[in-house]
Amino acid sequence: MAYTTINKSSLYQNTVLYTGDGNNGNNITGVGFQSDLVWLKNRSTATYEQHLMNVLQGFGTGSTNTPNLSSNNDSAEYDRNIFSSTGVTADGFDLNNYSDTNNTSQNYAAWNWKAAGTTSVPSGGSITPSAVSINTTSGFGIYKYAGVSGTGTIAHGLGVAPEFVIVKDILAARSWCVYHSKNTTAPATDYLNLNTTAATTDNDNRWQDTKPTSTLISVGDYETNESGSHEFIMYAFAPIAGYSKFGGYTGNSNADGTFVYTGFKPSWVMLKRTDSTSNWTVYDNKRLGYNVDNNGILANTSDAEYTDDRIDLLSNGFKLRANHAEVNTGSYIYMAFGQPIISNSGVVATAR
Q1: pLDDT reported for residue 66
Q2: Which pLDDT score is estimated for 319?
Q3: Collapsing DSSP states into helix, strand and coil, what is residue 132?
Q4: How many angstroms separate the first and last alpha carbons of the chain?
Q5: Which value, in Å, is the radius of gyration of the alpha carbons in the chain?
Q6: d(Cα 330, Cα 78) in Å, to the nearest integer?
Q7: Among 101, 137, 124, 60, CA closest to 351
Q8: What is the mean pLDDT of residues 244-253?
């Protein structure tokens, strides 16, 4: 069977760049699918928040009813007039004149993921989500659930153990809690917080000291689950050969930096140092998008993008190009998405 490498933008993950116009009805196109997770960031000016919105919280349309969360703080969800009455479309989204996401002449990055495989809630966990959006082909699930007393499990329905999980309490000020399969040798005992620079914390009350299985994700009794007025959004990612990988590497403290093999051409990469304080850094193939000039955005701050040359995105992985603490001097985790291998009959990417 012959396989062809194609641009993944028509499949499940894509970056779109746009310029704000300060008006209601700024129509952004080119995503290639209807997004289930939209992450917007101002590239030009500091102080503007990160904005993450998903289909389960509701994209909302109109003046003040787009529930969103910011990866650079621990705030509960809040409503902003981000989308116009048209909202999220089959190929993009339509913006209102909210300054964080549509300021006149400001440049923005929009990172998009598609789930939209099934909305049927899987059975088997002790906590039953109120809503889900799960795609086994792309290895991505979104889950909304109410917290319970003590610990619990959630059936994820991906068919393979997730290797990257992010949870946020949407009703209370709680940090974004992150599980990564390469975060130390005992990742289920440890956790990271997306909204901070903190190094790995060793504490089993986030994931019950239990790795995700092919059916269940275990949650603890704080930041991932809590009784009372607490409701959570979970993003779970399972690896898909040729499309996504969630791994780790050790920096070599050299300008001729470590090479990380992914098995595909990365188009979106997020890095985090685990053994010391460090920012979460996002790179993609659209902001300049050529070597040696891939700009970074810090996911845990409101800063504008920076222009230091720290990474090359290559045909089969990425290579660090700087002796810099945020990318190449210690122990790191990453999540990467890229161009899948497909045949005429469809995607031939299989979970590992």
Answers
A1: 85
A2: 95
A3: strand
A4: 20
A5: 19
A6: 36
A7: 137
A8: 97
